[in-house]
User: Fold these one by one.
Assistant:
Number 1:
Amino acid sequence: MVQQLARRHGCEMLRYAINGLLATAVHFAVLTVNLEVLHFPSAGLANLCAALAGITVSFLGNRYVVFGHRAEPLLGQALKFSGLYGLIALVHGGVLMVWTDWLGLDYRQGFVLATALQISLSYLGNKLLVFKK
């Protein structure tokens, strides 16, 4: 099943992975600045703010490069995408809050864990809800 999926959607999945790496790099860079330079008191809050930058990069890349589905008006897609990513950002922020703020563990490890969950949720949500053809 995985091989069949990869054959049918391989190029799309590669574009999605590259776009996701770029968005994640932006997200992590902003998170790092928030915690290390601006000294946010909460990793969860710093992460939620950083997620907005990553979400913007992700939307533009998904709309124009990954799925190439521009038939729907930009605003309609942006609203659906925002709703999906708003929920994902809350999940991501919650994971980081529990991992770092409550358990006292390193925020970088929590970020990796939360991002793995985010990748799965965002690909499925984008493919099936936001950019469906």
Number 2:
Amino acid sequence: MFEQGHKRITSRNLPPTFKARDLYKAKPWLFMSYFFSQRVTETICTMSFNGKFELQSHENFEPFMKALGLPDDLIEKGKDIKSISEIVQNGKNFKVTVTTGSKVLQNEFTVGEEAELETPTGEKVKAVVQMEGDNKLVTSFNKIKSITEINGDIVTNTMTLGDISYKRISKRI
């Protein structure tokens, strides 16, 4: 934390436009202790996932869903539907809602803590979601590794089961 005027600034009340270089310019001696605080590092480095995203394309949908054990009729119905994903991020807390036709899948989790997540098949599993870098969420459950990465207005989700990878590319709307 550091003081700006008479107001005490901590990692919990940083303005959204806060940049580490601002602190370095203002008080370089304080920069080092402040920057290496775990909470501040997360605040400074974490890119915002907030937004609504529409599926633009996907690869290996049918083989992946067959490997998960979904029936052919559901796979056929789902392959051409454009889903909408809404991500609400508040620090390390996330709420992800994926709407595909009439099916709504919703998961809430805190990075680094165990949470109950719903899989694409509707099964509930316990898993821990980790953040890698400032733009990637990674988790594993039921032999599936899921990586969700945001770059600008594009969210890429890759789920891998054995040697089959299913890749979803969505764009911010």
